[in-house]
Write a structure and sequence with these properties.
alpha+beta, 9 strands, 9 helices, homodimer, two-stranded antiparallel ribbon, globular, seven-stranded antiparallel β-sheet
Chain lengths: ~300, ~300
């Protein structure tokens, strides 16, 4: 484990005598480790590998991937802390005059084997520009191949509860932002059924950190019960094919629109870590149209017309 | 068939009393039809469907796809002739002040079932901007999962012969351009073993048209003998997996870098026609490294270090 952080910091996350960035990094790395443990327990068959890597120019990360599991066909949990000179191209895109940056965060993408268990993504990050500007960003969102409404309600409700503890305006704002962000214009549909997306959270950074912790800590509660509930649902080959076609859309979003991915490829991040989000198998058939009234059509309808899942 | 062109024009391609754009369109549509026939014969099992579509703003196309064949897991041949007002965003990208455009062309992508038979792509196009500027573009390139040197030599040699009849400077220029264009920076490798790529060909348009015809007409001679030679090579599951991983790279190139694809998605072309190039099945495993000295390593070496295939 390449953590440069004293793990004792994990017990002093609110100790403001320690610089915030160090506490955030400790939290992110601790979260990565805890999530991998829980996911391994649930999978029961495979464990996560761990590849530590260094970034030329400053920092590095730890990429953890589980492949070919009983529950998860592919699961990736990445942590990284990078810093250094901000590339010009990036500074222009971010509309900043800052010269140096520091970023720490985790991202996670889980591709379950069963078409009845939804794919999920979460990401939490903290950025500092020079000594002048800093903010949190992140979110979590669910991408089912088949719609189980109660599962989507549970996912959203759990995230909403985490938000409401901090600011009741957060959930409606970040839910809407999520629907807007994970939109695939050329398909006229969202990638999935949403969740939360937030960025440039720069109120009181200490309370923003508390908020991010709440959301990150609620993530497994939002997702794991869905896996447990659906993992033994039966499925057949046509449903598997539909899942692979949906994964094709996931690839389209990530490679064409996702800021994190495009940013990672442009800044020559570690390609295998940036692209660990891509599915183990995906399919593109020509002009597939689900039959009217089918379960597949129900899903597409909800992706084309995002709903409110909790009041 | 939605051709607006008198097919009699096919027999008068050099008749300059007919506007060039009409002759080019007739040639492109005739080529599409001829290629589909040849590919169906070779496949022996499945035939091409035909979807005619219209473009809002002017023009349309014919998308022809064969799926689940004996030889071709997926084969797409698209023709289109579109015209109208040039979108501002596009005019800026193309660095032109033109207000109206007209484009006619075909594109083809074949994904064979066997990992021993290479994927192939070809594209030929003619563009007019207002009445002031016009040019041809196009090319053909080969993407094997396993390297058979003699096949690559045959492919390049056939295309070179087509070039040499017109201008001996073409092949070296367009071969190099192809290696540069089909490069995946984040992987540090080319998509395949190259071929030809050319654009902005605006010498004498009549002789440019003759050149494009020569290349297009030589395309099946460049590719089909390779299919016939390799289609009965034995292959196993690890080789199929390698093919699916290589197809993942194909997806990465097309969605992140390919101008035609990005252009098509940005201008809200018909998505299913733009993305017909994507493979029927593709795979992303984490951090796959071919064993030293393996056939897979040999391929990667040639993708990282493009070679000269014909003197």
């Amino acid at each position: 484990m390449p953590s440069v952080v004293d793990t004792g910091i994990l017990h002093r996350l609110t100790d403001t005598s320690i610089p915030l960035v160090q506490r955030v990094q400790a939290f992110m790395e601790g979260m990565q480790s805890a999530m991998c443990s829980e996911l391994e327990k649930l999978d029961g068959e495979k464990t996560f590998g761990a590849d530590a890597w260094k970034r030329e120019g400053g920092g590095g990360g730890l990429t953890r991937v589980l492949e070919g599991g009983a529950v998860f066909e592919k699961a990736g949990v990445n942590s990284s802390t990078v810093f250094g000179t901000l590339p010009d191209s990036l500074a222009r895109k971010m509309n900043t005059k800052a010269e140096r940056f520091r970023a720490t965060g985790i991202s996670l993408v889980l591709h379950p084997r069963s078409p009845m268990v939804p794919t999920v993504h979460a990401n939490f990050r903290y950025l500092e520009m020079d000594d002048k500007d800093a903010w949190f960003g992140g979110g979590a969102d669910l991408t089912p191949s088949y719609l189980f409404e109660e599962d989507v309600v549970h996912f959203h409700k759990t995230l909403k509860d985490a938000c409401d503890k901090h600011d009741i305006s957060y959930y409606p704002r970040f839910k809407k932002w999520c629907d807007e962000y994970f939109h695939i214009p050329h398909r006229g549909e969202c990638r999935g059924v949403g969740g939360l997306f937030f960025d440039y959270l720069r109120g009181s950074l200490e309370s923003d950190f508390m908020f991010v912790r709440s959301v990150a800590e609620s993530f497994l509660d939002a997702y794991l019960p869905i896996v447990q509930k659906r993992v033994n649902e039966p499925w057949d080959e046509p449903e598997r094919r539909w899942q692979l076609l949906r994964r094709g859309r996931y690839v389209e979003f990530n490679l064409v629109y996702d800021r994190g991915t495009v940013f990672g490829l442009e800044t020559r991040g570690r390609t295998e870590s940036v692209l660990m989000s891509l599915p183990p198998l995906a399919k593109w058939d020509y002009n597939v149209k689900p039959a009217e009234g089918s379960r597949e059509a129900t899903l597409v309808d909800v992706l084309q017309n995002p709903r409110e899942w909790v009041a």
